[in-house]
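agent> call fold_tool(seq_1)
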Amino acid sequence: MKRILALCLAFGCLVLWGCAPLKSDPQPSAAPSPTPPASAAAPSQASTEVQANYRGKVVQVLDNALLLAGEGGAGDLCTLALKDVALTDAYGEPLKVGLSGGMKVEVGYSGVILETYPAQLAGPVSLRVIETGEDWVGLYAQVLQDLFRADEGLNAGISRTVFDLSAAGNLSESEKSALVYRMGQVLGYEAELGSYETLQSEGSIDPAEPYFEDGLLFSLKLKEQADGRITFDGEKWRSALGAYIFYDCAAEKADGVWRYTVGSHMVS
């Protein structure tokens, strides 16, 4: 009897097990699909189209860059990097000569000018040489450096340099600004445009005892310009009894470069 009961119980368990729903093997969840890129297209590039043009004169050739004096008057100075800039001549042909001071150029750029001093032309694309001009800034920068080195005792204790360029008739107003900027860079002192009169009016020079205590006053005077030759005077002034003059200088252009000689050296 006990055997029959055990068999019945076993049979019942088998029936119940057979009626239970089959448990499926676990399936791995599907991996999330990768997030598609924001755009399947190539990344956008900055526009290389010319949005504006800037005309100026090359007043300094830097390391793969230029300093330009613009047509906007005093203070209109701009720099631009030459990397990837297409250089052409006046006819749009590839430029076959190197860039040099005095060249008048037109720069195609993005239209954005960074407000530094000098300003910076952003996104330059092209540079066309309109004509080969005269590098007056380069010539006068050399003259002023030579004047600074002459009688260096006059330079003791200075902290500023002032430049009277009112009689330098072959310089535009922006070229005057460029020359002063360059002198500040090369001499390492504060540099500004001015005159004996402006120094008097600001109290830096006492007319009763003429002496520029904290600086030097430089001046240039164009005397004659004709037939590829100019004559001029240059002066470095510290006081009524402390000045050095390059008198009756003559400059001529040879191999594309202006060079000068001093007629007389005068000391007071």
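agent> call fold_tool(seq_2)
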Amino acid sequence: MPTVAQCGQHAKTLALQFRLGITTQPALELADLAGQLITLFASATPQQIAQLQQLLTAVLQCQQNRDWSGLADYLEYELQELLAGSSA
């Protein structure tokens, strides 16, 4: 199972790729990252799980709308904040 740090770094890498207009491979990897996050948050507090659910819903909405900049923002900022709170 990936660590919090590994998931955070992977999310930052994907965010950079989305910002550069590279979308196909990162979109596929995003599904893997979501699965890893769900596994990672399995023992989190109900509040953290709800926050992850909201974040993943927003990420999916950005992906559906092809809002790559918004998606990158969620991965680079919002997710990092959530991960920092989960490891505290």
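agent> summarizing second result for user.
The chain has four helices and no strands. The longest helix spans residues 46-64.
agent> awaiting next instruction.
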